[in-house]
Design brief:
Elements: H1 12-20, H2 36-44, H3 47-51, H4 66-78, H5 88-91, H6 94-100, H7 104-112, H8 120-129
Length: about 130
């Protein structure tokens, strides 16, 4: 039997009203503070689609769109993480991963397991697909 589809809608106005009315709300915080606004800025300025639009030669389908993988790798660079092995800080940051495009259910499951939303090996394999010329 298939799992029921769940849809989360990001509606800041409703969230604000719920907080003001004292309703219980669920919050996914970012460990990177103001850096989460980088994604919003890039999207609003129209740059996000450009910098995540590289289409590498796809081999085996790993279940992730290249846009999401590239978004994760771009944030690694913008946040000056350095080596890919240090990207755990990013892939475990629920708010940042949601802004990049991962769904909330996947983020919650990863958090329950104390893991990143995407495996570092998947990111590494994606980098190998991008032509270096």
């Amino acid at each position: 039997m298939r799992e029921a589809i769940k849809v989360w809608i990001r509606n800041e106005k409703e969230i604000e009203e719920a907080i003001i009315n004292g309703e219980e709300v669920e919050v996914v915080e970012s460990d990177f503070g103001a850096n989460e606004f980088v994604v919003d800025f890039l999207k609003e300025a129209g740059f996000w689609n450009i910098i995540t639009g590289m289409r590498p030669k796809m081999g085996k389908n790993n279940g992730y769109s290249s846009k999401i993988i590239l978004g994760t790798l771009i944030m690694k660079e913008l946040l000056y993480i350095g080596k890919l092995s240090g990207a755990g800080k990013i892939i475990q940051d629920g708010k940042l991963m949601a802004d990049i495009g991962f769904n909330i259910e996947k983020i919650k499951k990863a958090k329950e397991k104390d893991k990143g939303v995407i495996d570092l090996g998947t990111l590494r394999n994606h980098l190998k697909k991008i032509a270096q010329d």
